[in-house]
């Protein structure tokens, strides 16, 4: 399918599938990886799709769209920086600025931080480390909410016996140290 149809056609079909109730994530993520590897235009098309999901998730405060957004971005980042930005770069670009969707209101800020907090018990350490080392932009009035999340994430990292200082020359920066389920 990825070789026969255009990138836009396949991504449109994937988006339709993602809007159904039951999704076979293994097939979706495998298809996305193949697209990224075999079609050079996939990165820009996927970036547009992720931007649309991000906007839609914050417009409706839709947790399912946030989950979809994070899963697709993480899978894409696993393919390496030649194909898609690292997870760290994607996260900083999506949430690191004052013009990001979550920075527009208290409700949006709370939505993002609650989403990230709810993931903490299940989150692989490499993603928690990105969130702690490059936290989302949070306005001054709501910094205490961010601090609560960072404390929770650091506690989880300690529980997993993972140090934030465990960085070295061979560190995997694109998030591929753990598998996406």
Automatic annotation (TrEMBL):
Species in which this protein is naturally found: Cirrhinus mrigala (Mrigala)
Coiled-coil regions listed in the entry: none
Fanconi anaemia group A protein N-terminal domain sequence ranges: 2-163
UniProt xrefs under InterPro entries: FANCA (IPR003516), Fanconi_A_N (IPR031729)
Protein name: Fanconi anaemia group A protein N-terminal domain-containing protein
Top-level division of the source organism's lineage: Eukaryota
């Amino acid at each position: 399918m990825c070789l026969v149809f255009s990138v836009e056609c396949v991504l449109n079909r994937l988006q339709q599938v993602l809007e159904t109730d039951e999704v076979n994530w293994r097939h979706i993520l495998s298809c996305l990886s193949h697209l990224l590897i075999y079609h050079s235009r996939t990165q820009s098309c996927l970036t547009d799709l992720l931007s649309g999901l991000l906007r839609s998730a914050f417009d409706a405060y839709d947790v399912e769209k946030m989950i979809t957004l994070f899963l697709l971005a993480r899978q894409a980042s696993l393919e390496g920086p030649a194909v898609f930005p690292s997870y760290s770069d994607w996260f900083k670009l999506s949430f690191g600025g004052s013009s990001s969707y979550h920075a527009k209101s208290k409700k949006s800020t709370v939505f993002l931080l609650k989403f990230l907090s709810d993931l903490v018990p299940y989150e692989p350490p490499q993603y928690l480390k990105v969130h702690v080392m490059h936290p989302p932009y949070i306005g001054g009035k709501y910094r205490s909410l961010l601090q609560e999340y960072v404390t929770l994430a650091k506690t989880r990292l300690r529980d997993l016996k993972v140090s934030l200082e465990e960085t070295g020359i061979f560190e995997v920066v694109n998030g591929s140290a753990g598998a996406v389920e």
